[in-house]
Automatic annotation (TrEMBL):
Top-level taxon: Bacteria
Binding site residues for Mg(2+) 1: 276, 289
Compartments in which it is found: Cytoplasm
A Gene Ontology term for the protein's cellular component: cytosol
Function as written in the Swiss-Prot or TrEMBL entry: Cell wall formation.
Cofactor dependence: Mn(2+); Mg(2+)
Enzyme Commission numbers on file: 6.3.2.4
Protein name, UniProt field: D-alanine--D-alanine ligase
Family stated for the protein in its record: Belongs to the D-alanine--D-alanine ligase family.
Record SUPFAM superfamilies: Glutathione synthetase ATP-binding domain-like (SSF56059), PreATP-grasp domain (SSF52440)
Organism, as annotated: Brumicola blandensis
Gene: ddl
Keywords: ATP-binding, Cell shape, Cell wall biogenesis/degradation, Cytoplasm, Ligase, Magnesium, Manganese, Metal-binding, Nucleotide-binding, Peptidoglycan synthesis
Domain ATP-grasp intervals: 117-322
Cofactor details (free text): Binds 2 magnesium or manganese ions per subunit.
Length: 327
């Protein structure tokens, strides 16, 4: 293969130039099942392209085995904690091994929904109003019952989304509209994380913008009969619909792409990722979160956007891997 159309200065890249590649997937997080599906697809695509790629599951091997087994670089496709939060990136840097995607700081920032919103807010980027509930702040051992739920809901407009700060795939999330629902949702979210984000509910369509090496790919609009785009809507339910092209006019599509790039860059995102947004009733966009290791099955959102941009799944995977050469 050549990289004449892959943005690498027209130098010829052969599969052997990557050396022995570890595709890191599986892991210990709550998103292990999704990572297994993504990683299997990435591994197959790389092998079919002639790359010497092999599965490496941190559940099965200590990370130091990457050196023992003679790997030259890593393709990170670990979703959630232990792979998307900066810890694996730090371990690989300590080993001196090049890897795909965002580094330690950017991974940690993007994984934490609270810190993401704080950075975006500080930079004037649009994101919904929010409150943070921390387990350490709950008063006097009284638990979640000590919180003023009416005040929280009033501040957030009466309807809110509750999210564990550092989980993905909508795990532990809930929509709430009264104090009993809010109390139960926070208690559930605290099972997954010590910090919980409670943000204003946005009643509008959800969009996602995939990013590849400094470019925004065509946006995708999601539609689901579920209360929100939850885990089942993402991975189990055939009723979810995806629109790509998303139906935006050219100027709005361009503006959304620029917003996504700004949001990704603000969190020190590198290489590839995905930014999720909601559109309000007045047509403006509100940032939800940035994903530094999004799903990568052939029907996941990033491959859908790449296909709309004229890129095959194999080409997408190779472009992501090629970014590791810059490390």
């Amino acid at each position: 293969m050549t990289n004449a159309n892959l943005g690498f200065d027209n130098k010829t890249i052969q599969p052997s130039d990557f050396g022995k590649v570890a595709v890191l997937f599986g892991g210990h997080s709550a998103e292990r099942a999704v990572s297994m599906a993504s990683g299997s697809c990435v591994l197959s695509a790389l092998q079919e392209a002639g790359v010497d790629a092999h599965k490496f599951d941190p559940v099965e091997y200590p990370i130091g085995e990457l050196l023992t087994q003679g790997f030259d670089r890593a393709f990170i496709i670990l979703h959630g904690r232990g792979g998307e939060d900066g810890s694996m990136q730090g371990a690989l840097q300590t080993l001196g091994m090049p890897y795909t995607g965002t580094g330690v700081l950017g991974s940690a920032l993007a994984m934490d929904k609270v810190y993401s919103k704080q950075v975006w807010s500080a930079l004037g980027l649009p994101t919904a109003k929010y409150r943070v509930v921390r387990k350490s702040d709950i008063a006097g051992g009284a638990g979640v019952a000590s919180l003023d739920y009416d005040e929280i809901l009033a501040y957030l407009g009466g309807v809110a989304m509750v999210k564990p700060a550092r989980e993905g795939s909508s795990i532990g999330m809930a929509k709430v509209s009264d104090q009993n629902e809010l109390c139960a949702a926070i208690a559930e979210a605290l099972k997954y994380d010590d910090d919980v984000l409670v943000e204003s509910y946005i009643d509008g369509p959800e969009y996602t913008v995939s990013i590849l090496n400094g470019q925004a790919l065509p946006s995708i609009r999601m539609s689901t009969p579920h209360v929100f785009y939850d885990y089942d809507a993402k991975y189990r339910d055939s009723t979810t619909e995806y629109y790509c092209p998303s139906g935006l006019d050219d100027s709005t599509e361009k503006a959304l792409g620029e917003l996504a790039l700004s949001a990704f860059s603000a969190l020190s995102g590198i290489g590839w990722g995905r930014v999720d947004v909601m559109r309000t009733s007045d047509g403006s966009f509100m940032l939800l979160e940035s994903n530094t290791v999004p799903g990568m099955t052939e029907t996941s959102l990033v491959p859908k956007a790449a296909k709309q941009a004229g890129m095959s799944f194999q080409e997408l995977v190779l472009r992501i891997l090629m970014s590791s050469l810059e490390r």
